[in-house]
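Narrative of activities, Objective 1.

The group set out to show that a structural description can be obtained from nothing but a protein's sequence at a throughput compatible with the screening campaign. Below is one input-output pair from the validation batch, recorded exactly as produced.
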Amino acid sequence: MRIIRADVLGFCGGVRRAVTAAEKALSENKDGTVYSLGPLIHNPVALNELALRGLHVLAPSAIGTVTRRDTVLIRAHGVSPAVAGALREQTDAVIDATCPLVTQSQKRAADFAAKGYTIVFAGDKNHGEVVGVQGCAEAAARANGLPCDFRLIRSADDAATLFADGAPAHAVLLSQTTFSIPAWDAICAALAKEIPSLEICNTICPATHERQDALVRLCAQVDGVIVIGGRNSSNTNRLLATAQKHCARAALIETADEIPDSFYGLRTVGITAGASTPDSVIAAVESRLKVR
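Output recorded for this entry:
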């Protein structure tokens, strides 16, 4: 069997930054508990490894239980200003591990909301990043005595009904950093017809583009593709969708134990991985394929 890795796969810069911050906090905090507010990243293997080292996941409803001795990491997806403020009332040891690109999206949304713009956001409902960006927009609008019109869109089909009550005078389109690139392109085209004055800010992470492009190139060289990553990870699931579109056989797994038996009979297998997938898991999958 020949195994080919995608040119770009695994940890992105934002995820690696968050994991490094967690490891540092765990090594430095000797008196209190180290928490991440919600899952630090979307990968169960990485989270389990951090949990074994002492990282606890803190539910937003339990912020009031944090003590001054504790350290809390704001996860890579970010949080709203209200949640960040509540954390800082409990402890001075709050580490902001928000991905810098997510922080940039939060700032853009806040800036437009402060000017009275309608914010149209391409993203997944209830995703941590989306909730945090919306919270930033609402806080900025409120600070300027304005209402906040934040509308979530998932596909180009939503565009036709998004402004049934009339198009706004000023609107901007932003997106989740891991949003589907083809879906984004379709939404841009559809909304531009509905709102001629629409401002468009492409906030999709470059790493998303790079992984998708590398996967398409990989699919042309292999008989099957294994996508490694968390099943609750948006970018991993979008990699799977791309693999299924461009390759005859594709599977999503979280660990080497989940490799489908059918892949061991293929001549050439491609490997890609989501942005929250540790290097160790990728290596384990590759090793398992080689020994079988």
